[in-house]
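CORE FACILITY INTAKE
Project code: CF-77B
Contact: R.S. (postdoc)
Sample description: multi-component assembly, three entities in total
Requested service: structural model of the whole complex
Turnaround: standard
Below are the sequence entries exactly as provided by the requester. Do not edit them.
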Amino acid sequence: MNTLYLEIAVVVLGIILLMVESYSASANKARLAWIGAIGLFGVLLLSFIPQHAPAPGSPAAAFITSDLLSVFFVRLILAATIVFLLTVPSFFPALRISLPAEREGGGLGEFAILPIFVCAGLMWMVSAVDFIMIFVSLELATITLYILATYLRQNTASLESGTKFLILGALSTGFIVYGISWLFGTTGTTNLLALPSAIAALPEAAVTPLLFGIGMILVALSFKISAFPFQFWVPDVYQGAPTPVTSYLSVASKAAGFVVLIRLLGALWAIPAVSHQIHAVITLLAALTLIFGNFAAIPQTNMKRLLGYSSVAHAGYLLMAVASLSSKMAVPAIGFYFAGYLAMTMLSFVVLQVVSEATGGDEISRFNGLGRRSPLLAGAMLLAAASLAGIPFTAGFIGKLLVFEVALKQGHYGLVALGCVTVAAGFYYYFKVIRAMYWQQPAEETSIAVPGALRFLIAVLGAAIIAFGVYPAPILAALR
Amino acid sequence: MEHSLDPYASLLIHIVSGVGFALTTWVGSLLLGRVGRATGVKNVPYECGMLPEPGPQPRFSVKFYLVAMLFILFDIEIVFLYPWSVVYREYLQQYGVEILGVLATFTAILFAGYLYAIRKGALDWSK
Amino acid sequence: MSLLLILTIVLPLAASLLIMAGADPRRTSLVAAVVNLAFSLVLFFGYDRTAGGWQFLSEWKILPKLGINMTLGADGLTLVMILLATLVTVSALWVAPKVEKYNGLYHVSLLFISAGVIGAFASLDVLFLYSFHELALIPTFLMIGIWGTGDRQAAAWKATIYLGLGSFVLLIGLIALYISIPSGHRTLDLRELDQLATSGVLHPSALIYLLLLVGFGSLVSLFPLHSWAPGAYACAPPPAAMLHAGVLKKFGLYGLIRIALPLFPEAMHELNGLLLLLVVGNILYIGYVTVSQKRLDWTIGYSSVMHMGYIFLGLASLNMIGVSGAALLMFAHGLSVAAAFALCGEIRRRTGTLEYSELGGIARTAPVLALLFGFATMASLGLPGFANFAGEVLVFFGATAAGSVMVIPVIVAVWGVVISAIYMLRAYRNVFWGPVVQRWESVADIASGAKWAVILLLLPLMIAGFYPQFILKMAGTALPH
């Protein structure tokens, strides 16, 4: 089986569900989400059948690969999508308020189906080795995400979020296309595998336009992974978008962006003509992202914005590992970091979803006294925040440990020192949430009920955080 | 001919003739046309029929946008069929079934979208 | 037996799971703590002192490629610290009141702290040494923030930021140490690290030692990184203060003995002047600050900071006598400060205040409380008969033997004993003696439960005071000769 079939299975699943949604008389749209999740879980299981890359020379081989990196991230994206789909039915009440429909259940079904198409796009993106393929899959994913971000039609924040996302996303698309065309213009190829030899054969004079093209692509990717100074859309979009979408956006879409970055830099890393500048740019990007993400998170009072800035901050740590790409442990470190990041970020968004549903808002103050209103939710959030801050025995700690270790080995002492300071800042803002949950008085004493599916998710994600934190070897082995 | 015309020469000719035509008509009308008394109404590009600048917010049915968007979508997708039909003969020998399969898949996906649009009432004018 | 060592870590965690599942918090946690104490005694006396070295070993592979394994084991020093931890845990859970909010979480937090410190002491792998310590640190912050008194939030924040930053500097130091090992030998196992150091493979730079000193130092409230400690202890609920000041804080010293002493002999020599300067600051400056305190809890909090100076002095003497004195003093101080905080909590529960200006003459109606506090005071002063005395004397001997550099620190340290006599006796007089304040004419005496909890702490202190070999011989098995 090569990886192409997994994506095709996902697309077919999505189309079937779309047809079922529009032609069946049933108004029970939650069932679509369950079926979608089960179907994707089936695909996830299929992905464990040994994969092989398309045969060399076949048309697919020019576009798609199936190496350890792509298989790992395909699974990660499938897992993230399954989590998304499981949170969808309990988000329906909130959707109904902002989505006036002529028929009962109108517009709800698509919210469960569109993520499947995003999933397919991102899966292609992490397996792509050709810029054309990267671009097409990127568009499939982001255009669908635009719709999802603005799904709460009558909520101005959601509209604002969607509009900003659309405009800036289109801008970054422009950058990437422009960059690709410069790259193609100088080297004559859009294939990442052919890129190193094409660059090696370039005359001296062609290096500057080449660097310009690479720079444009890096700008576009910085948008996707929310690296400073292209992170400004993050807090606004995260705040306005429906909570499950925000969660998905900060995990799956960022992961795919990082994979493309790794593939691009992996092709360019060792080429003397460009490596020097690229190393410098990535190091600078990592430093600025770390500083901005962490320090801008400190004064936040809105939970979604806080998590938005925190996702910028985590991009900074990940960039630290990207800046150390010469080490063979760098890619496993990034993969592990993402596995942990998936569990802890999605767990905190699940909790946030329940809390904002129950209290009617996303501010941190809505978490006041959560420890008394729902020990389960508070405990889950405590675990997620501890992991995000990097406390031992959680996935976040091992992730940071691996990243710092890789960076130290490559001699990025400045970045590591900066990382220490920002981790301390992280302690501060994640503890703000914990403080609200346990130290403050609740506004009301009523307990908060948690839907069964979300209970299941909380248990699974929480267990994953601890399991990865205590026994990280299997995840790392998957990438080596 | 000793050497063929440089490929870019045709581009140059194209630019020159384009700019030249615009310039000629503009300068010609300046020289030949009789300039009467200019009023606001007279300077409007079209002096009869609809006003080119309508009121601030004319009402359109939102369905118009939907149909227009669907038209553009399907229109653009059909454009992709063109390159396929051009290369079809060349690749027929090597990838005969595959290349047909690719097109069939593409059309099937489009068709699914079409069915969806019909079912959701996007093409229903009366509603 | 190695299973028993694992059980001492697992038992508190299992008990906290039971509590989360709905078991009675107080009963469950106390049973677990008492059983744990029994385990630690069995381990303590089951250790083969003639064989020495690490015993009760067990190992799980975590990241074999990086040389990270979870290795548990114990030598004499470990067992002394585990004994201290289990003793203080029992006592802390015993005096823990039934709290109104989150009663279950209160006990769970205490059990987590206990499991964390025991795990930290029993870990042979540096990474897990660090990780278990963090596991204990988080519940401490929570406890100060949720159940503290006074300006609890500010105190908890300050402690969080100081200790969070400190432990991160420590982590960087440990990673840097790991990286500085020539590749091929990379390991985080204490035993292998020792071997590397003795065989001369390891040449870590003084900078790494400095990182470790700052990291461990801020955890132990080494001057000038101490300012989180008094406020945190004053605001913390008594059981949390007992466990943190008594046991968790010793982790930093334990780490320095385990990691810095064997691996950085040269760097410790080079930078000994700096350490001594800080020690003088710890004893003299903090001593005078303590004298000027106007509340009992702040006095005890500062005094616990000050006494760290003696232990650091023992480490800085870099010889067998001084370091074993430091080890004994760690044990002794842990018990005496826990007793002091327990009694402090009892007084506050009766009077609602700890201001010297408002208290006085309590001994008349609460003689047992006064007696016990008197014992705790004497122990912390270092009067003969208590382990603190033996420890301090050994530290002074060791320091004097270390050469002329130590003359001034030793003089300061001896003078420090006088300073601590001043503030402790003054505190004792102000609270228990003097004219009886009308408000406290009918203050109840200590309850029998709390009484036994404190006696549990004071008794080993006296045993070790009359027979210090009991601790020294055990701790000595871990120290380089």
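Facility notes:
- Chain C has a mean pLDDT of 87.
- The radius of gyration of chain C is 21 Å.
Invoice: internal transfer
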